[in-house]
Structures are given as structure tokens and as C-alpha cells.
């Protein structure tokens, strides 16, 4: 579902507007591919800045991976403790 305020008020070009619509609709992979294609085509400075912003927003923060690893460790620890108790 699209959330308000994600797409810039004035996308630089129709291609960037299409990429932002893809991201807002939830298709981040297709939006990233379109942004990479735009960057590969020697874009205008506005398109380049917006494509880089779209790519930056589509990356998973590394902190989330550490939280997932911590959660997995705690789960394994609880299973081991339960198995040794019974």
C-alpha cells in the first residue's frame, strides 16, 4: 500500500515518475531496476539525484540484520535451555 509523502512532489521526468510509482505500489525491485536503468542512460542532474535517492530508500538497513541475528540466537538459546531442562 502506498503511504503519503513517499514520492517527491515533482518527479524530474516521466521515467522517474514511473519508478516512484513502482516503489510506492510496493514493487521495490522493479523500482530499483528502473532507477539503475535511468542512471545508466546518462540522466539529467535532477533525474540522477532522484534515482540515487530511490536506490538509497530501497536498501535494507544493516541494523535490521543484526536484530534478526540476535532474535535467532535468543530463539536457539531458549530451545537449548528447554531441551536440557526436560
Main attributes of the structure:
single chain, 86 residues, mainly alpha, 4 helices
Please give a structural write-up.
- This protein is an all-alpha fold and 86 residues long.
- The chain is 71% helix and 0% strand.
- The chain contains 4 helices and no strands.
- It has helices at residues 14-24, 28-40, 45-57, 62-85.
- Helix 1 (14-24) packs antiparallel against helix 2, helix 1 packs parallel to helix 3 and helix 2 (28-40) runs antiparallel to helix 3 (45-57).
- The longest helix has 24 residues, at 62-85.
- The chain starts with 13 loop residues before the first helix and ends with a helix.
Write the layout of secondary structure elements.
Blueprint: H1 14-24, H2 28-40, H3 45-57, H4 62-85
Helix pairs in contact: 1-2, 1-3, 2-3
